[in-house]
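Residues pack. One example:


***
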Amino acid sequence: MMVVLLAQLAAAQSASESVSDTLEPFNADSFRPAMGPGALLATESARVPDQFIARVDLTQAHNPLIWIDEDGSQLDLIGDAIGIHLGAGRGLGRTQLGISAPLIRLITSDTEAVPSVMAGDLALSAKYAVLRRDRLALAGIGVLTVPLGADIFHLGHDGISGDLGLAMGGGGEGLAWLTNIAYRIQPSASLDNAAEALTLKNAVVVRGGLSLPVGEELALSGELLTSFIPTDLMAESTPIEVMVGASHQTREGRLLRGGLGVGIVGAIGAPTWRLMIGIGHDPGAPLILVPEETPLPQQPLPAEAETRTAPNTTPPVTP
């Protein structure tokens, strides 16, 4: 949601320089909508689709990166950013291959010329279903992101990055749960030249949530999103965002979803608030498959069975 920079940062710059220009490139908002079948808004499912899936999501993040001086004055480095996230995937047995990328429009900023349009990081993903049970699923997930130039606005990495982790899910006919945990390898960046400044580097990313079906096609969801640097568990580097949402999926695979996210811990990666609405094509089954009861074959009544199977022992009548 914010970054509080040291006073030396502002004092060191000339009048013609912007605060944004003095910062090293880093990604202030790495949010990416989940794409797999049965996924929540941001938490990926452990299921693999049987065929082609597609997603188009519109997001708006408010104040994902701001600067606050010692006197309390605020400078919005990224005031509002709108993203159109395009994604597609294909299931091949136990494997899902996917590709996604956002088209970002920076609409408000105190340091950049707006509006500015840019392509966000391109993501190439792979998922392998390790365990596929009716009420429990486990998959390995890998994501490789390639920068396309958004790093100059702090909306993308300035080098190749990637995630490697697990997706788990389970539940029954009612409440279902999903959890993602991954280790993110990303270019490091320091927010100041001072020794005590915050340094962004490789992090552990955790996402999880619950989904509650309401009827046959509607589901409500709640999620918790966070990330932390294992060697530096400071509040400035540990964002926490809460999202609530809903999704409607027809039997034909038409998907409509949307939600609201709120940054409850002000750190880089959690905006003040986030809106998301999207559509998709997902012909897959629901998140948790509950096996239907197989009707038992009807057995004949004892009297009927005896009538059909008893031999005729009456002797023939001779004239």
Notes: The chain has one domain: 24-284.
